[in-house]
Amino acid sequence: MSAGSHKLAVIGGGIAGSTIALNLAELGIEVHLLEAGPSLVNGPPACHLHAGGNLYRELDTQQCIDLLEQSLEMLSAFPHCANPRPTVLALPLEDASTPQALLPRLEHLRSHYQQLIEQRPELELIGKPEHYFSLYSREQLQALAERTPPAQPRCDDDWMIPLARQLDLNKLQFPLILVQEYGLSMLRLAASCELMAEHLPNLNLSLNSRVDALSRQGDKWQLTVTRGGEQQMLEVDYLVNACGFRTGSIDDQAGLSRQRMVEFKAAFLSHWPRPEGHWPEVIIHGERGTPQGMAQLTPYADSYFQLHGMTEEITLFKDGLVASDQQSAQPRLPSPLLSKIEQGWPEDVLNQRSELAIAHFARFLPDFSQAEPASKALFGAQQIPGGDPSRREATVSFADNHYARAEIVKFSSAPKAARLIAGELAELGWSVKPYQLLQSAKHLNKQQILSQARAIATARQLPPALAEIYGEFQA
Predict the structure, then answer these.
(1) How would you classify residue 22: left for phi > 0, otherwise alpha for psi between -120 and 50, otherwise beta?
(2) Phi and psi for 374 in degrees, rounded to 5?
């Protein structure tokens, strides 16, 4: 039976749905990608490539290894999505843990990265393994503080100079840790997906398309889809549910139960007019949900910085973590949070949380108090399959009736989800080309993607600077 005799629908055009649809179309499947919004990859904010899971002290080592491997797969599939600059981890004096407690896991990750490269040299995508992480003592930072930041960083020390000159070292434990976890550009990911979709003839993309009903009829799925005010019927042999935090609503329509959680979170943009040099991402660890929750500073071009503060006054929200129940597979967010997703933010709430985010980081970087809120919030709801709210590595689950759910938590899990679904189709006897990781992005050039990403930024009322590549150095 030819691949063309099978049809597959993907509901949801976020990074999971887009990656799955593109990859399966490349493998010869006729794919219908249905997205309710006006563009692809327009979900919760993503700014970080978790190449080792080092933002999460609570994760076990295996999850961190999985995130490292998936991040390398993500960079292979979307070679233009990274902002290649390192991340610096620091612990406040009052933190209950120490930097030394992080080192065994970092050593394990470095060793695993070395093994991966020995097996597949093309995976050397975040620098040499021996440079995966570096330690900086107070004495080293005091010496670096005497240097002027270069126009373009060329080594780890160059990235540390601005921090050494401006961080309040009296409030931190030592050493500081620099690790090769890069930034991730959601805008360039969106641009890559849109450009690739244009060149795959067996990918049928439908934007502004809502699935109103679905049912299983014999060995087929029948979908009622509203496009442009008109209802249409679509019949397919396989259904992929990639609806992000609304995945449970499609499960309900399909009559399938599933345990999951949904968490509403937000990040805030700021403009700091006087940063010296090029900044790495900076993580100040802290206990989640307390006033001392982790502070995260993510740099972009033109002096823009994205901020997270893991407190209920900044990134987290009271009653923002909800779970499914026996009546529905769809966790129900409180109305005030759902209205932020569907209707936008009240200006006073946006400004208040933005100011608190700036103050939260300025505790350790006094001059950052001069930063100002910029643009709208970056926010959304993140699904977490199962009942463990700390889970960060997840991909896909299958039902028996030709139905799969993409349940990724981090963007970098999307290529693995596509690979698992391709394997499932092959086991079902579909005529699928031998699996290859998404190839289409390799045929796009940087300027094409940048131009499209800038246009997407403008359409989403975001600073075009967020589309630019930040950092070119690889250790």
Answers:
(1) alpha
(2) -140, 130
| pLDDT at residue number 1 | 34
Distance CA 467, CA 227 (A): 30
pLDDT tens, residue by residue, 151-194: 999 999 999 999 999 999 999 999 999 999 999 999 999 999 99
Q: Could you give the CA distance from residue 361 to residue 367 in angstroms, rounded to a whole number?
A: 10
In 153-276, the DSSP E strands lie at 176-179, 183-184, 203-206, 209-217, 220-227, 230-236, 238-241, 260-271
**Look-up of token digits 């959601």:** 186
Mean of pLDDT over the chain: 94
Give yes or no for residue 3 having a pLDDT over 70.
no
Contact 74, 412 (CB under 8 A): yes
Res 262: pLDDT: 95
- 355-386 burial code (b ≥16 CB/10 A, e <16): bbbbebbbebbeebeebebbbbbbbbbbbbbe
What is the DSSP secondary structure assignment for residue 167, as one 8-state letter? S
Cis peptide bond N-terminal to 175, omega within 30:
yes
Give 366's Cβ-side CA count (13 Å radius): 7
| Cut 0.90: pTM above it | yes
Contact 195, 206 (CB under 8 A): no
As beta bridge partners, residue 299 has 305
CA distance 119 to 199: 32
Give how far Cα 168 sits from Cα of 92, 138, 354, 363, 364, Å. Answer: 10, 11, 22, 8, 5
Check: CB of residue 211 under 8 Å from CB of residue 7: no
Q: Are 81 and 274 in contact (CB under 8 A)?
A: no
Beta carbons within 8 Å of 447's beta carbon, 6+ residues apart? none
Question: Crossing angle, helix 446-459 and helix 186-197, to 10 degrees?
Answer: 110
CA distance 259 to 328: 9
Residue 24 CA to residue 197 CA, distance in Å, equals: 12
Whole-angstrom distance, CA of residue 409 vs CA of residue 247 = 12
DSSP string, 22-66: HHHHHTT-EEEEE-SSSSSS-SS---B--SS-TT-TTS-HHHHHH
267-303 CB burial, b ≥16 within 10 A, e <16: bbbbbbeebebbbbbbbbbbbbeeebbbbbbbbbbeb
Distance CA 81, CA 189 (A): 6
Beta-strand pair 176-179/87-90: antiparallel
Q: For residues 237 and 8, is the Cβ–Cβ distance under 8 A?
A: yes
Is residue 198 within 8 A of residue 151, CB to CB? The reply is: no
Round to whole Å and give the CA distance between 338 and 38.
19
pLDDT 10s digits, 418-440: 999 999 999 999 989 999 999 98
Return d(Cα 327, Cα 259) in angstroms, integer. 11
